[in-house]
Amino acid sequence: MTDDVLQGYRKSIDNIDAALVHLLAERFKVTQAVGRYKATTGLPPADPGREERQVARLRHLAEEAELDPEFTEKFLRFIIDEVIRHHARMQA
Prior knowledge:
The chain has helices at residues 4-41, 48-64, 69-91. By secondary structure, it is an all-alpha fold. The chain has one domain (4-91): Chorismate Mutase Domain, subunit A, CATH 1.20.59. Helix 1 runs parallel beside helix 3 (69-91) and helix 2 packs antiparallel against helix 3 (69-91). The longest helix has 38 residues, at 4-41. The termini are far apart. This is chorismate mutase. Keywords: Isomerase. It holds the Pfam family CM_2. It is an enzyme of class 5 (isomerase).
């Protein structure tokens, strides 16, 4: 038995998930370019000041969007850590 209401919600979730994947792919393309630039100019893989500002900015955006800022920070931290790992590998 199919529940049309539930199916509609799930279709919306699937569309949002697809958009998130595409947005993350675009973000990582740009961060890869940043990593290459840092590697060729001798800049360090991490920029703690930038990271701190980004976390604060996204926590604020999360609050405005009524999204848990703690969740948002954990999600962003995961992404930042992955980017730094990629940048460090480029410099090795």
